[in-house]
């Protein structure tokens, strides 16, 4: 194709050239004609690229005519054919180019979409990874928590087992102490008999009741190591001296004393709108005697007249008949209301008795009797109780129908004087299952030759001294 084009350009030059053109002289090229034609102008044919043709090109005009015409026709035909062929090819190429252009733009779009999809997939993949890591972390935390819970549970179980073990050992020790006290008593009796004592002192039988559940968290007390009674040494035989006070004790500090009254009992004070516990002035119907008493107005709708209270060992309860008859102690602390006062109050109507007991772990239990009154002093204030209900056990029942005994007036059914052994004043039997006016021991279980603590046999046995006790009266609803 290329040689054909060059021939075409040469032919065009031959037609356009004139003889004597100066351009022919400047050009240097291969000769087209024989050497005999030298010396004539325009004897050469120049092959010049199309874009460089800026003027006339001379060619030999003296070549044989027939050759020139034949070549020209052939070339023209060839050129035309080539041209048409090129045109078709150009059109084809143009089509291809157009198609390619569309494809390129489509490809571009696809690439763009692909990139978007890739970034979206990457984003989702990262999210997925994040979720997986987060879940793995959560699972780890959960596993750690589970293991901690398991560890704590195991510790708790170990402690519970240890606690139960200690509980069992403590119960065994308490039982041993109880048994040993009984054994010591027996041995002492044997010793006295063996070594010539012909008249051994008669002692009351010890309370043998050892409940299944002795209150825990207490410890043994020792009368040598401890001084349990703050006001009076434990076991002291101080016979209380009668005092000039109408209640047998110094006037109590003026606390919560209601300015109103006197009332016939604390229930009447409660009915009159006095809802605060404290000291009230009472006067029984058939008596001219004024009584100072503590009214419990917060417990079970109030209206309770407190007859007796123990709570800290600050008052000695080992006293004579006169003291027990008139009363002693501190109204806002430990006190005994007095048998005559109790007798006068209780005979006003139908009353019930509530005994509230608190052990050394702060647990409170109670014993309630459906009725309560005393007989007169001529009958040594004989006790009359109704039926029991409560959760402390009925340890007071065996005292029902018994007269009151003090150290100086023995009315119990035992051959000796129960007040001597139990160190208090009480409606002793021989001698009984409870001793709420006994010695206040700190700590619960105590050691003593005789059972002289503040015990309630059904709750704690004879060698467990309660921490706090209250005896209260209220009319039957
Ligand atoms: Ca007796």
TrEMBL record:
Signal peptide start-end: 1-22
InterPro entries: FIB_ANG-like (IPR037579), Fibrinogen-like_C (IPR036056), Fibrinogen_a/b/g_C_1 (IPR014716), Fibrinogen_a/b/g_C_dom (IPR002181)
A biological process term (GO) from this entry: angiogenesis
Nucleus as UniProt keyword: no
One Pfam family recorded for the sequence: Fibrinogen_C
Domain Fibrinogen C-terminal: 257-477
Broad class of the protein's primary localization: secreted
Keywords per UniProt: Coiled coil, Disulfide bond, Glycoprotein, Secreted, Signal
Subcellular location, record wording: Secreted
GO (cellular component) term, any one: extracellular region
Coiled coil spans: none
Keyword Signal: yes
Name of the protein this chain belongs to: Angiopoietin-like 1a
């Amino acid at each position: 194709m290329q040689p054909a084009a060059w021939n075409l350009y040469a032919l065009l030059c031959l037609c356009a050239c004139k003889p004597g053109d100066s351009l022919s002289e400047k050009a240097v090229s291969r000769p087209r004609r024989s050497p005999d034609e030298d010396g004539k102008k325009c004897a050469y044919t120049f092959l010049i690229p199309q874009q460089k043709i800026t003027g006339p090109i001379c060619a030999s005009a003296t070549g044989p005519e027939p050759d020139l015409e034949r070549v020209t026709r052939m070339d023209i035909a060839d050129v035309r054919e080539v041209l048409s062929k090129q045109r078709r090819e150009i059109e084809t190429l143009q089509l291809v180019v157009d198609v390619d252009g569309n494809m390129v733009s489509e490809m571009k779009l696809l690439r763009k979409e692909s990139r978007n999809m890739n970034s979206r997939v990457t984003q989702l993949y990262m999210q997925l990874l994040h979720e997986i890591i987060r879940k793995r972390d959560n699972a780890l935390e959960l596993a750690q928590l589970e293991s901690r819970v398991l560890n704590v549970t195991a510790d708790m179980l170990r402690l519970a087992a240890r606690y139960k073990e200690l509980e069992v050992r403590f119960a065994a020790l308490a039982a041993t102490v109880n048994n040993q006290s009984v054994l010591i008593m027996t041995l002492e009796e044997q010793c006295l008999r063996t070594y010539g004592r012909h008249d051994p002192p008669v002692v009351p039988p010890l309370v043998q009741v050892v409940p299944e559940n002795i209150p825990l968290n207490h410890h043994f007390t020792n009368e040598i190591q401890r001084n349990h009674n703050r006001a009076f040494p434990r076991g002291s035989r101080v016979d209380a001296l009668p005092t000039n006070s109408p209640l047998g004790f110094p006037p109590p500090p003026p606390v919560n004393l209601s300015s109103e009254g006197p009332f016939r009992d604390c229930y009447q004070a409660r009915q009159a709108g006095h809802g605060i516990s404290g000291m009230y002035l009472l006067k029984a119907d058939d008596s001219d005697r004024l009584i100072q008493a503590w009214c419990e107005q917060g417990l079970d709708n109030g209206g309770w007249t407190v007859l007796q209270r123990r709570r800290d060992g600050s008052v000695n309860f080992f006293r004579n008949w006169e003291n027990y008859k008139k009363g002693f102690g501190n109204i806002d602390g430990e006190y005994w209301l007095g048998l005559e006062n109790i007798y006068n109050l209780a005979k006003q109507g139908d009353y019930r008795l509530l005994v509230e007991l608190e052990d050394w772990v702060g647990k409170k239990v109670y014993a309630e009797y459906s009725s309560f009154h005393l007989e007169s002093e001529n009958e040594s204030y004989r006790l009359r109780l109704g039926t029991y209900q409560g959760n402390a056990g009925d340890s007071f029942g065996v005292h029902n129908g018994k007269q009151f005994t003090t150290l100086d007036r023995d009315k119990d059914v035992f051959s000796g004087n129960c007040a001597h052994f139990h160190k208090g004043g009480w409606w002793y039997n021989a001698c009984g299952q409870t001793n709420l006016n006994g010695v206040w021991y700190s700590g619960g279980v105590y050691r003593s030759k005789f059972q002289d603590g503040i015990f309630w046999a059904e709750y704690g046995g004879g060698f467990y001294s309660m921490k706090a006790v209250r005896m209260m009266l209220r009319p039957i609803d």
